[in-house]
Each structure stands twice: as structure tokens, then as C-alpha cells.
Amino acid sequence: MREDLPIIEDARRPARREKNAGEEIRKSGAPPAGGRPGRRRGKPGPGGFHRTLIRRKRLLLPFLFLAAVLFFLLPRWFRGCGAAETEDARGAYRFSPRESSALPDREEEGESGVPSPRPIPAEEQDPLLLVNRDHPLPADYVPETAALRYGMASSRLCLDDLQDMMDDCRAAGLRPLICSSYRSYEKQEELYRNKIKFYQDRGELPSEAIRLASRVVAPPGESEHQTGLAFDIVDEGYQLLDEKQERTKVSLWLHENAVKYGFIVRYPPEKTSVTGIIYEPWHYRYVGKEIAEEISSSGLTLEEYLKSGREE
Q1: What contacts 103, CB < 8 A, 6 or more positions away?
Q2: What per-residue confidence (pLDDT) applies to 71?
Q3: Cα–Cα distance between 224 and 229 in angstroms, integer?
Q4: Exposed (0-12), middle (13-18) or buried (19+): which is 27, by Cβ within 10 Å?
């Protein structure tokens, strides 16, 4: 039996050497002779864990980017109009049934400490009040208004008719969105100055900046929004203020039915030479039901209608 011991002992030694060599190869990472390194199984080492983490981060990056885009764009899409009049898009509101309330009829001190002018009562407001470059409103013209949600407001003179029009439009299965309503003289001045500064920051001379700004934002006193009788209304599914707005379902419905509620499309196409304003299919002005029917059937603008009445 002892003669077999050296043979058994010698037979085990090469196996140990091969095993030890394999462990050294795995530890060093070198490939075995004559072949490719096999995949390691089990828990990855520090380097493998780091590479796995990097791969996972790369997979997550597109989703994080998409989430960030949606976070910033969705509120603007659902709450405001786009493009040309970004300033008017703040606090846009889809007019809902019977959700207005009267503003307090009292004098309040402004930022300068001077009492603000008392609002003009609805019965003293003129629905045919003409406002443009040649007929500006004074800074102290403040109509009596009714507060709407999200900081919007409407003259009390047209509130009921506006409410009925929006209710009926929604009842027809449409989704109208009021994105601009009453604006004070001070607010209009702020928008106008901001637009001038925008063009000056782009390198325009002061005179050119004023000219360009006046094409986009009316100077203070020259905007119909100060009357509380003008509203920019768009389709919730397409909120850009451009001529494509006229082809939306909301605009098609309003262009056909607005006169029944006392509203007209204030700046129609091919009348820029008369109104001084480009075609705005989203801009509706309240003039009263009877006058709206007359203006609509005659094809005149408010300027032409008032002029023809004075000539008669």
C-alpha cells in the first residue's frame, strides 16, 4: 500500500497547480492560453458595478429630458396663447359657467399713494366706444368690471352676453379659451415698455424698437382691452395667435354666432388700412346685439359704421 502513495500524491499535484493557475488568471483578468476569457459569474467587482450604473444612467437620460420638457411646456400649452402675443398668455382661463363675481366699487390707493379712479358704472359705459391710434383712452378710464378666475376680468356691461356665448359654445361640444380680457392702462404700458426693451436688447435703435413694438403691442391708451369689452378667444386645441386660428372649430362657431350675443370680429381681413390693425380672427369686441347684426350684415368695421352714422 505504501508503494501507491507517491503515485496518488503525484496525481493530485498537477490538479492543484491547474486550479491555482485558473484562480490567478481570473484574478488578473488575463485570457487563458489558446482561448477567450470566459464571462465572470456572480457579483460584479467595483469596476463592473460602475459600468452597470453608467449604462442605467444613460438609459434614464432620455426619459428625464422628456419629463423636463413636459413639465415646462404643458402649463404654457393649457394656460396660455402662444407665439405673437406671449405677454397676453399669463393667466389664461377657459371661461366656465357662472364663475364670475363683482369687483368692489370703491376707490383704492395705487402704488404712488394716489387714490385710483372710481370705476365707470356699466350703465354709463358706451358699447360703441372707439379706441385706436386716433382715439386713445385716458389713463384714468377704468370701467366697472367683474372678476373672472386667474386674474381675468370683463366689463359688467357685456358680462351676461359673454357668459351666454361661452356657455353655448361649450354646449356645442367645443372648448373655447379666453386668453386676454380687460387690461388696465398701467398693464398695457408695462407690456409696451417690455416689448420696446426686447427689441433694444436685440440691438435695435430706440426709434426702430418703438416702431417694431407698436406692431405687436398697442401703446397704452390705444388698446381696446382697456374698455373691458374686448376679448381674445381661441380654441384650446390650437392656441397660437395667427391666421390659422380662423380654421379651428371654436373660431368657425364664433364667427357664425358671435353677433347673436352682441360681438363682432373687430379686425376683419382686408380692412387693415381702415383699422390700422392686421387681421385678428381671435379678437372679439362687444357692441350690443342690434349693432352687431348691423355691422356684420353691412361688412363695415366699427370705424366705418360710426363714420357713416355721423355723415347721416
Answers
A1: 119, 144, 145, 146, 147, 153
A2: 62
A3: 7
A4: exposed
Given 85, 87, 144, 280, the catalytic residue: 280
Closest CA to 140 of 76, 185, 183, 187: 185
Q: What is the CATH number of the domain that holds 169?
A: 3.30.1380.10
Residue 233 domain flag: yes
Residue 291 included in any domain? yes
Could you confirm whether 109 is annotated as catalytic? no
Structural domain of residue 241, as residue ranges? 86-102+127-183+223-311
Is residue 145 within 8 A of residue 139, CB to CB? The reply is: no
Spatial separation of the C-alpha atoms in residues 250 and 304, rounded to whole Å: 27
Which set of grid coordinates corresponds to residue 262?
352682441
Model-wide pTM > 0.85: no
Residue from 257, 256, 261, 233 nearest 245 by CA:
233
Q: At what angle do helices 289-298 and 302-311 cross, to 10 degrees?
A: 90
- Whole-number Å distance between alpha carbons of 51 and 58: 11
Question: What domain count does the chain have?
Answer: 1
> In the chain, which residues have pLDDT < 70?
1-57, 69-115, 310-312
Residue 252 region by backbone torsions, left for phi larger than 0, else alpha for psi between -120 and 50, else beta: alpha
